[in-house]
Design goal:
By secondary structure, the chain is of the alpha+beta class. The protein has 2 domains: about 5-130, 2-Layer Sandwich (Alpha-Beta Plaits); about 140-195, no CATH class. About 40% of the residues lie in helices and about 20% in strands. The chain contains 6 helices and 5 strands. The protein has a 5-stranded antiparallel beta sheet with strand order 1-5-2-4-3, sandwiched between helices. α1 (about 45-60) runs antiparallel to α3 (about 100-110) and α4 crosses α5.
Amino acid sequence: MATPVTFTPQPPPPVGSEPLGFLRSDAADPPVTVIRDIHVRAGSEAVFEKLMGALIAEATRQPGHLGATVLRPTAGPTSPGFYRFVYKFDKRSNLLAWHGSETRARLAAPVVEHVVSDRFSEYPGLETWFDLPGRAAPPKWKTTLMTWAAIYVLVVAVSYTLRALQVALPIPVASLVLTGIVVPLVAYVVGPLLGRVLHRWLHAGASRG
């Protein structure tokens, strides 16, 4: 998986005004996953969760939003007040539109006083369908099964289509055509769609927001 670009502003900026860092990707406008590790001030957890709940609820109504996961602080002294937010957009342009909107700025403004630090990481492209750092990553067998199922169905469908069209090609050329059709479909259509439809199953066991 590509190494993320991580921003740790000093002092931490308002949750609604931080700059975005871009990673190189083969796609001009790739799907993107944002991971935020936010340290909340002691005693502000209840208010913070209420404010962030409203922010997340509005985000889910934005064009291209593919879902959000919230990992709350675990019991014990090792991670008091540390939240992890994971959210996805189908295109970086849709993420930028949301991050730059007046609605998000208005909803994010009250959150600032309850935040000690806000660490922002952005992951673009294919590698962020399923594989996220730490506890956000679903089990490997689930992602493998889902990827295999998507590729299998598409390979069968495209193979029957080529046969119906009576396309007779040498094996190397036929394989090139087949993979040239299936891989982009999985990368930009089927993969993100399955990730959204099966999000609850993929991330079973994580606290969701």
